[in-house]
Amino acid sequence: MRAVTNLVNVLAPAHEHEFEAARGLPEALPEGERQLWQGSPDVRLLARQALHLDLVIGYFVLLLGWRAVTGWADGQSAGQILMGLGGMLPLILLATGLLGSIAWLMARTTVYTVTNRRVVMRVGIVLSISFNLPFSQILSAGWRPRGRGGDIVLSLGGSDRIAYLHLWPHARPWHLRRTQPMLRALADAPAIAALLAQALSEAQADRQTLPQRAVPMDAGRPAARPLPQAA
């Protein structure tokens, strides 16, 4: 019965999240708060960037090539080589299909929401968790291009910590001690970055605090671009 329930939740997420006050939000927005944007990761970008599907496919291509070369060196005929390669294809298709399915499930069950006061991340395939990130706890924000899309990285202040495994893959890679949430694999990352910059700027003006600064990136890694500043 449990397996059937989980399958229904995956195919029809409304059953799992019917307790939400609104899609992606665990409770109704309070007075004065409004939703600015809501979306999910792009499936193809998520598969390539978080699950490294390109590298997996490249590995299998090399494996097929090696199998063909060794078969030719052993004196096998073209038919025998093709038969050997064909025997490997089902496992290759199974592996790449599983990665693609996981990426689809991640994208389908993930909802990012930006309001004029906070960022909300609803993540999790089997067990959904919602993270509320008020602007007052966001020390810095930056975005980095990734292929035809991009990621938005958030650096949090305060003593509260979010476990890396609870956030993955919606966390900046290799930052384990001080986890940095990340709106990952966004096809329209520049537009969302501009919108978030505007919201942060207005919130800063209300609090009369210093402007946000770009998230510093490690040496040797692609530098995150600062969120575009609102005019």
TrEMBL record:
Domain YdbS-like PH: 108-165
Membrane-crossing residue ranges in chain numbering: 50-69, 81-107, 119-139
Keywords in alphabetical order: Membrane, Transmembrane, Transmembrane helix
UniProt xrefs under InterPro entries: puhB_PGC (IPR054839), YdbS-like_PH (IPR005182)
Keyword Transmembrane helix recorded: yes
Start and end residues of each stretch annotated as Disordered: 211-231
Entry-linked NCBIfam families: puhB_PGC (NF040894)
Protein name per Swiss-Prot or TrEMBL: Photosynthetic complex putative assembly protein PuhB
Species the sequence originates in: Roseateles amylovorans
Gene that produces this protein: puhB
